[in-house]
Amino acid sequence: MEEQKHIKDYIVDYLLEENAKKSIDPVLAEWLVEDESNRKDFDLYKKIWGESLLYTESGTFDSNLAWEKVNTMNLQKKKYRKHLWNISYMVSGAAASLLIILALSFADVFQKGSDVVVRMTAGYGNRSEVVLPDGSFVKLNSGSEVIYSYDPKKRIREVDFHGEGFFDVSKNKDPFVIKTVGGLCVKVWGTSFNLQAYTDDLVVQASLVEGCIELESGNEKLVMKPGEIAVFDKATNKIKQVRGILSHSYGWLDNKLYMEDMPLSVVCKYLERWYDVNIILQPELGESIHYNGVIQEETVTDVMDALSRLSNISYHVKGKDISITSK
User: Fold this and answer.
1) Are strands 203-217 and 238-242 parallel, antiparallel or unpaired?
2) Which long-range contacts (CB under 8 A, 24 or more apart) does 217-223 make?
3) pLDDT in tens, 106-116
4) Pairing of strands 278-281, 321-326
5) pLDDT tens track for 288-311
6) What are phi and psi of 255, to 5 degrees?
7) β-pairing, 156-168 with 176-180?
8) From CA 32, how far away is CA 202, in angstroms rounded?
9) Which of 74, 138, 229, 273 is within CB 3.0–4.6 Å of 142 for a Cys-Cys bond?
């Protein structure tokens, strides 16, 4: 059975077609009429593709300059304090990446012995999306960074990662390896999964949607199957499977926080990252209050209102500082 293609693949196929009168695939055509924003995104991709031809002219392409340019584009994106996805931001980031990916492909950079490196960050209060040079997608949650490199001599795709991200890795004969803070190595075979690996968290959590990934640290090793959730304890270097609802682990993609007996201190850690705020808790309050349910609110004050209704707490906001005390 033919593997299901992403809409990005249909867009790339269209851009690569050399006929003067390009034909639009029915799937792509249906996507275009679904929403006016899809048509605008498509027009933006075509415009950038046309401009990218300047980079592929023989004798004028400089791979180092190209990657410096895409890094500058990615790092200079404005930070948005709202935790909701900003569509225009994602489109511009993905389009900039697409431009460089296609330009590099035509210039045969991968066959010329040049190392490929690209970096993308999502600061606190911001989320972003990036297309890696191998065609893989990564959606980054707040406070995350991904650094992708490819060494054509070793023929390995390597990613240094911290934060939280949803990976959709393209299948390729070259290994795709993710290294996280704490020593966990994630070996990936064309697959989709969520990886939570914040530097200040005690554990790294992997949730596999489809495909296969292998978690490895020293002598510890675990091969995961779709639907499984596993955690790596940084203190003990132990890897184990845990129970849980798979979709809850990546609820952030829909701006949802699922709480299952979650202490207030942990809830606050999520809120600090999502909304770029600083929360000061009354001593011992953070571990004495636990929540069950789901948060899906638009602003941090909406969330605090909901939490205060569910428990015996009050809060005060001053700029980016939020103090929480018992009522």
Assistant:
1) unpaired
2) 217/182, 217/183, 217/184, 217/185, 218/183
3) 334 344 444 66
4) parallel
5) 999 999 998 789 999 999 999 989
6) 60, 35
7) parallel
8) 44
9) 273
